[in-house]
Structures are given as C-alpha cells and as structure tokens.
Amino acid sequence: MAVVRVDEDLCTGCGVCADMCPDVFEMEDELAKVKVEEVEGDLLESVKEAAESCPVEAIIVEE
Ligand code: SF4
C-alpha cells in the first residue's frame, strides 16, 4: 500500500497523469487532484508509471 500526493506548487496541469491513470488522478481548476490517496497492487503500478511520466515530478508516492 502506498500514499499518493500531488505537489500543487510543481504541477503544471499538463493532464498526463489523469490520462494515464484516471482512477486515481483527475484535473480540477487546471491542477491534478488525487481521487484515491491510498493505492496498492495494479493501481499502484499505474500510479508509479504516471509519476515517472510527470514532466515536473510533482507526483509523490510514499510506500
Ligand atoms: S502529470 Fe504532473 S504536471 Fe501533469 S497534471 Fe499530473 S501532476 Fe500535474
């Protein structure tokens, strides 16, 4: 299990995370929001891929 957060000071609102993992990320007021803070299993893998794809490394995954 891991806890997911988005650093709103870093997020540019590019939308990549919400496209890659819409179960966890959504766009709101041009910033990414976390819909589900605690993830595990396949969802966690999807979150990690989104985090690696974030151009400004704004997605924080704490395991
Ligand atoms: S991928 Fe990163 S910069 Fe883009 S919306 Fe998501 S958190 Fe923000």
Structural description of this entry:
- Helix content is about 30%, strand content about 30%.
- With about 60 residues, it is of the alpha+beta class.
- It has a single domain (about 1-60), classed as 2-Layer Sandwich (Alpha-Beta Plaits).
- The strands form two sheets. It has a three-stranded antiparallel beta sheet, with helices on one face.
- The radius of gyration is 10 Å and the shape is globular.
- The protein starts with a strand and ends with a strand.
- Bound molecules: iron/sulfur cluster (SF4).
- The site of iron/sulfur cluster (SF4) has 14 residues, from α1.
What top-tier CATH class fits best?
Alpha Beta
Distance between the termini: 6 Å
Order of helices and strands: EHEEEHE
Helical residue percent band: 25-40%
Overall mean pLDDT: 98
What structural category characterises the helix and strand content? alpha+beta
Which compounds are bound in this model?
Answer: iron/sulfur cluster
**What is the name of the CATH topology?**
Alpha-Beta Plaits
Q: How big is the Rg?
A: 10 Å
Strand order of the largest sheet: 4-1-5
Q: Describe the main β-sheet briefly.
A: 3 strands, antiparallel
**Shape category:** globular
Tally of contiguous helical segments = 2
The total number of structural domains is 1
Low-confidence stretches: none
Annotated CATH architecture: 2-Layer Sandwich
Number of strands: 5
Strand content: 25-35%
